[in-house]
Amino acid sequence: MPTGDRIDPYMNFNFLVEIDGINQGTFQECTGLDSTTEPVDYREGGENTTVRKLPGKSTYSDIVLKRGITDSDELWKWRKKIVKGQVERKNGSIVLLDLEGNEKLRWNFVNAWPTKWEGPSFDAKANDVAVEALTLAHEGVEKAD
Fold first, then answer.
1. Alpha-carbon separation of residue 1 from 4, 27, 53 (angstroms)
2. Helix %, strand %, coil % for the chain, to 5?
3. In this predicted structure, what is the pLDDT of residue 22?
4. What angle do CA 136, 139, 145 make, to 5 degrees?
5. How high is the pLDDT of residue 97?
6. Integer CA distances (angstroms), 135 to 20, 51, 52, 94, 119, in order
7. Do residues 64 and 135 lie in contact, with contact meaning Cβ atoms separated by under 8 Å?
8. Spatial distance between the Cα atoms of 60 and 32, rounded to a whole number of angstroms
9. What's the rounded Cα separation, in Å, for the pair 140 and 19?
10. Residue 79 has what pLDDT?
11. How many CB atoms lie within 10 A of CB 25?
12. pLDDT score for 30
């Protein structure tokens, strides 16, 4: 017999992205929200049958944002500065919302800058939205309390 209230997982389609100084926060896709810590093998003297695993360097994947192209060119201008050698790092957040639009979870990333911009693929036989992608390198992500 079940006890307690049922807790359903949040849906992955209801999210927003906040980036310092950029008002374009609606994206159709956001990937790369992860971190990895490399294990380092350590052989302890006198223990010849087992290798200890110690935590090593932590790394974070690039975040890739995809959105339908609009008249807003804030992301393009940010990328253009990087190409000209004017590195402008920004902090940001990826916010998961519930079905009513209330914030449920937040991941903050720091010191991000666009490493790649990718324009849309065009096809005269299709009727899809023209999508651009922006890849952000960053120096860490943390889940907000």
1. 10, 42, 42
2. 5, 45, 50
3. 84
4. 100
5. 94
6. 16, 38, 36, 14, 12
7. yes
8. 8
9. 14
10. 95
11. 15
12. 96
Output phi, psi for 115, to 5 deg: -95, -20
Sign of CA dihedral 8, 98, 95, 144: negative
Q: What is the mean pLDDT of each run of 10 residues along the chain (145 residues)?
A: 79 92 83 96 83 95 95 92 96 94 95 96 93 96 92
Q: Are 101 and 130 in contact (CB under 8 A)?
A: no
Q: What is the pLDDT of residue 53?
A: 93
Which residue carries 């919302």 as its tokens?
97
Please state, as a whole number, how many other Cβ atoms lie within 10 Å of the Cβ of residue 136: 23
Instruction: Reduce the secondary structure of 68-90 to three states and give it as a string.
Output: ECCCCCHHHHHHHHHHCCCCCCE
What is the Cα 127 distance to its own chain's centre?
28
- Evaluate whether 108 touches 17 at the Cβ level (below 8 Å): no
The pLDDT assigned to 1 comes to: 58
Q: What letter represents residue 40's amino acid?
A: V
Cβ-based burial of 119 (10 A; exposed 0-12, middle 13-18, buried ≥19): exposed
